[in-house]
Amino acid sequence: MSDTITRGSEAPSDDTSSKNSPEKKQKPERVASLWTDAVRDLRRNPVFIIGGVLVTFLLILSIVPGWFTDGSPFDNDACNLADSLKRPSADHWFGFDVQGCDIYTRTVWGARNSIIVGILTTVLVTVVGALLGLWAGWKGGIVDSVLSRFTEIFFSIPLLLGGMLIMSMIPWAGNAYSVSLVMAVLGWPQIFRIMRASVLSNKNNDYVMAARALGAGSGRITFRHILPNAIAPVIVVSAISLGVYIGAEAALSYLGIGVQPPQISWGLMISSASDRFLEAPHVLLFPSAALSVTVLAFIMLGDAVRDALDPKLR
Fold it and tell me: Fewest beta carbons within 10 Å, which of 118, 192, 235, 300?
């Protein structure tokens, strides 16, 4: 009897309550790395956001300039000498130049050649300099010595002076692609040195030793392990240099050896307007402002990337 009462008074086991209670799901831990931290920092950086918006707008402007203008400056009836040096108005925001061409239309279309030079030169310089720097830093020895001495030859040639000499000698110069090629020939040594130094500082790290111990070949170690960890400073310098190359193209065009008429670039517009500044300052003001804003946008983008990828600046 007492045994029956004792059994009936037993408390229900906790198995049922534990089965009915929802299980707590563990959140996956975030994998920390240089690139994930950099992306997170860039999303919060107002300098990167402003620079990114400006660069995106400029890229769209250079790809489809017709979206922003009523016509093309290359039309036969685009210029009228009767409108020469007319000041800005409600119908023509930027006024007219010496030839009676609408400055707003020419400024918009001039973005294409200027940005093509900046982007194409940066891509060529980065690819050539990074690959040669990767090869020299990884191989060392005679390969490193020969490439380093060869690089010093180009370092002795100033970018603008060398560009002037080469552009004046080649017969097919006068377009954005020839300017890009010439500046890439003179600009790759900077990326080479940065990449070489980064590879030298990374190739003796523990993860490289571990990959060798596991039997990984030189190609796999170079492109799978060394390159992703050594490329960050190259990306930073390339992003900042893009604006510099746009300014260099404007300087060459201003001197008359860059992009040639009938093509349009901001450097050409500044060159043709420089002797009319006191008479009609708007002719020089607007292409100069467009060039300055573009260079500033790319430099802002490069500075933000540098701050995100350099752990010392955090």
Answer: 235
The domain that contains 134 carries what CATH number?
A: 1.10.3720.10
- Residue 310 φ then ψ, to 5°: -95, 110
| CA 290/CA 111 separation, integer angstroms | 8
Query: Would you say residue 172 lies in a domain?
Result: yes
Residue 291 has pLDDT above 80, yes or no: yes
CA atoms within 13 A on the CB side of 247: 15
Count H helices and E strands in the chain, helices first.
14, 0
Q: Tell me, what's the pLDDT at 312?
A: 55
Domain that holds residue 54: 35-64+101-313
Q: Among 112, 126, 70, which residue's Cα sits nearest to residue 246? A: 112
Q: Is residue 159 part of a domain?
A: yes
The 10s digit of each residue's pLDDT in 208-249 is 778 777 777 777 777 777 888 888 889 888 888 888 899 888
- The encoded tokens of residue 244 equal 């510099």
Structure tokens at 223: 């492109």
Predicted confidence (pLDDT) at residue 14 exceeds the cutoff of 70: no
- Terminal CA-to-CA distance of the chain, rounded, Å? 76
Q: Answer positive or negative: Cα dihedral of 173, 174, 180, 182.
A: positive
Domain contains 258: yes
In a domain, 204, yes or no: yes
Contacts of 117 (CB under 8 A, 6+ apart): 176, 179, 180, 183, 245, 246, 249, 259
Q: Please tell me whether the overall predicted TM-score, pTM, comes out greater than 0.85 for this model.
A: no
Q: How far, in whole angstroms, is CA 183 from its chain's centroid?
A: 16
Q: Map residue 174 onto helix, strand or coil.
A: coil
